[in-house]
Amino acid sequence: MNLTGKMLIGGQAVAGMREASHGIDPASGLALEPAYAGADAAQLAQACALAWAAFDVYRETTPAQRAQLLETIAEEIEALGDALIERAMQETGLPRARLQGERARTCGQLRSFARTVLAGEWLDVRVDPAQPARQPLPRADLRQRQIPLGPVAVFGASNFPLAFSVAGGDTASALAAGCPVIVKAHSAHPGSSELAGQAIVRALARCELPAGVFALLFGSGRAVGQGLVGDPRIKAVGFTGSRAGGLALCRAAQNRPEPIPVYAEMSSTNPVFLLPAALQARGDALAQGFVGSLTLGAGQFCTNPGLLIAVQGPALERFVARAADLLQQSAAQTMLTPGIWAAYQAGADSLSTHAATVACGLPASGPNQCQALLLRVSAAEYQANPALQAEVFGAAALIVQCRDEAECLQLAEALEGQLTATLQLEDGDIALARSLLPVLERKAGRILVNGWPTGVEVCDAMVHGGPFPATSDVRSTSVGTAAIQRFLRPVCYQDLPDVLLPPALQHGNPLALRRLVDGMREA
Amino acid sequence: MNLTGKMLIGGQAVAGMREASHGIDPASGLALEPAYAGADAAQLAQACALAWAAFDVYRETTPAQRAQLLETIAEEIEALGDALIERAMQETGLPRARLQGERARTCGQLRSFARTVLAGEWLDVRVDPAQPARQPLPRADLRQRQIPLGPVAVFGASNFPLAFSVAGGDTASALAAGCPVIVKAHSAHPGSSELAGQAIVRALARCELPAGVFALLFGSGRAVGQGLVGDPRIKAVGFTGSRAGGLALCRAAQNRPEPIPVYAEMSSTNPVFLLPAALQARGDALAQGFVGSLTLGAGQFCTNPGLLIAVQGPALERFVARAADLLQQSAAQTMLTPGIWAAYQAGADSLSTHAATVACGLPASGPNQCQALLLRVSAAEYQANPALQAEVFGAAALIVQCRDEAECLQLAEALEGQLTATLQLEDGDIALARSLLPVLERKAGRILVNGWPTGVEVCDAMVHGGPFPATSDVRSTSVGTAAIQRFLRPVCYQDLPDVLLPPALQHGNPLALRRLVDGMREA
């Protein structure tokens, strides 16, 4: 364990010049050493200058080189061993098994992007060869590839200290695309961030790539975060966090002389529709599945099921009674930070003011522990009251009771954009599910049947995204290999001699890509 | 010829309830009949409601149905015959042959998107089958496809009354993606717009598709344009026009409760680098090519070469003398509208204040005719003066003279984002070209060697886009088949039974798509 309290700029440990802060052990409330001082404007500018200088070199590395970097980062993270897990446990209150799983996910994600880079489909090579004899006008030789946008600012998330943080999905996909990355560490886990950052620095050195490809900064969102988004050398932003935080970054990015894309994953209540036949057939199992998903990791997941929608009646009452039973036995759990705990308390209080409490979990037995909470309202009350529609980050959920199926459909139409929407159904529900599906496709990035939304697979088909306010850019996913597309743009090359063409576009196709040539996909 | 002066809403001709305006024949300055009254708020809302109601139906049409629609629109436009060409000539001052070519391009573009829709790659189908036995956790069945964003507002461009207007590239790509389209016609060519709109309405009827899939509105940018962008049922915007106009739409789209993507193609000076060996070897031919490209269509192209960059010396002086000769013989040409003519005069005056005039074309012999203009400045003067860097829409160009190759490179770095950048080179210029290429890739959407940027091929490999301010979204192209991607978003389906999956994702692969299954592309 080698924590210095320093930032990483140009491959060097650099002490921040602004005010320092400590990670806090939420289980004890005590500050953890060392202190982490924030970047001042000059340090931020230096990281941007180095990223900018590294960009033209890094973006023309071969797919093999870039895959090697991603795999080497995974190796270096694994080489950190228990030191990383133990520091992350201290900083987050999350249990060992969860963090070991998250580390496996983080390294698997890096290796998955390595395979994606090597497969080369992200280059989307299109070739329309010259037709010098075409009438009335000849056609030039036209070739298109995707190139990276430029240096990317990544904001670490509070709830995944590894998988959505320094070496997480945003960093992995940006590096895969060919973009240098500057991470602003989340203040909740500076030590874990430093360790992961050191792993990336070592991997860059081992791969003999420019140190400017990566930097890790500490500091406040206002100073360092806004400073990064405002720097002209930053060309895209990846963020996972609150709606207010994401919207502030979007505004800053839009107000630049050159606006840039912001991929902010912000807020979602993840509606689960308990359809009538399913509720009738397996209300007990649904209650068990629901309470398990709601309370997993103290409910601190973007895809936590915060909204249950069902038609009123005896089957719903049986479900509610069973869920209440289970919830009342659920232990209080330590939340990630005192700030997140306080926000949960405020959110739970607000919900309790506007909705009837069904059940509470067991009370807290230590600092920063949250008590699970289940409430219910009518569909009419829910729609009339924006306070009920806001995400409460943590293990709180609202049951919305509809008069009939028509009101379920109408409620679906009234929902804001979501990361996920779930249908619990049996054969008898297929007709209703068919009516709901087109609505849910317009509302969510991922639609589940007979599952629970927590648990986001890293794979080609995953979408962790969705319409506003779930994210700031409905065209994107922040999990899964399609996330690389966020950091690419097309460039067309007209009549360039082979000697000037990049390898992906050369006539001999040295990268052996399956190009789209004259409208036909190569075998 | 069947011009009614009416809008098209729900397949019906509807008289606008706001103030009326006329197209103007720029060659005579006279108003053309009929008058076109603008949409009021209720009419605009009606078009949006119909588009919204049609969306869920239209977006689930089969690729074959959608391809048939696009081909039928092309047929119906061809069936308009000379009436369309003659009306467009009157409204734009453009010559017959140009408009015939533009019609062929428009219909070819529609048919090209029909082929793209049928090929199905735009669906980007990804399948990660369930792994129920996986340890430590099973994997669900995950399937991803692209779905359309929703109704799209398209703003017709002044300079392509057919190819970038009612049935132009934005409309064709949005319809191909599965989005209903509401076009705000450009006030410069309402009659051509009405004819093209009627063709689309007839095609929808022939294909038995909902009339709400298309609407054509007249009216001002402030009332109808901002009204469309502000309507919650509009989910994306396509625009080709001025920087001020595009930025106003971007602001409106960002300030909605639910921000939406705006694809605005705005401004570009399209730098052409005359590299030393090329200038030495073929200065005369370059002068001819340049003056031809500059004055083509009165310079009214987004890709007009408004900026020439070269190292000072005798070869440049010979080029300048020859270009001046040719330019002085170039006839004045009628511009598209009195407003565009006035803006050109103002822009040319501004350039003349800040740069030395090299040559002017022949003077005007009728209303709204522009005189070509060539000026020169030093690289230092150019960089110091933002007034020299603004696009002047029309046949005006600036020669920027550099002290040496290093200053050429430095000037390239200082350029704003561009649609195109061109290198005129010979073998002796390859080293300099290699230095310039990475810079130009960061600055432009299309890079040409030994060509001229006017002339934008409609094909798979084309990029008509580029960094801000060339466009508002560097990740996109508005010409070529990749334009369809602007109007799509991914959705993931987890564990849906086959009976609920869309055909593109069903286990039997009824659309015979080449899916990405477990990371492998199907043959």
UniProtKB/TrEMBL annotation, chains A, B:
<dbReference type="InterPro" id="IPR016162">
    <property type="entry name" value="Ald_DH_N"/>
</dbReference>
<keyword id="KW-0560">Oxidoreductase</keyword>
<dbReference type="GO" id="GO:0016620">
    <property type="term" value="F:oxidoreductase activity, acting on the aldehyde or oxo group of donors, NAD or NADP as acceptor"/>
</dbReference>
<dbReference type="InterPro" id="IPR044151">
    <property type="entry name" value="ALDH_KGSADH"/>
</dbReference>
<feature type="domain" description="Aldehyde dehydrogenase">
    <location>
        <begin position="25"/>
        <end position="458"/>
    </location>
</feature>
<dbReference type="InterPro" id="IPR050740">
    <property type="entry name" value="Aldehyde_DH_Superfamily"/>
</dbReference>
<dbReference type="InterPro" id="IPR016161">
    <property type="entry name" value="Ald_DH/histidinol_DH"/>
</dbReference>
<dbReference type="InterPro" id="IPR016163">
    <property type="entry name" value="Ald_DH_C"/>
</dbReference>
<dbReference type="Pfam" id="PF00171">
    <property type="entry name" value="Aldedh"/>
</dbReference>
<protein>
    <submittedName>
        <fullName>Aldehyde dehydrogenase (NADP(+))</fullName>
    </submittedName>
</protein>
<dbReference type="InterPro" id="IPR015590">
    <property type="entry name" value="Aldehyde_DH_dom"/>
</dbReference>
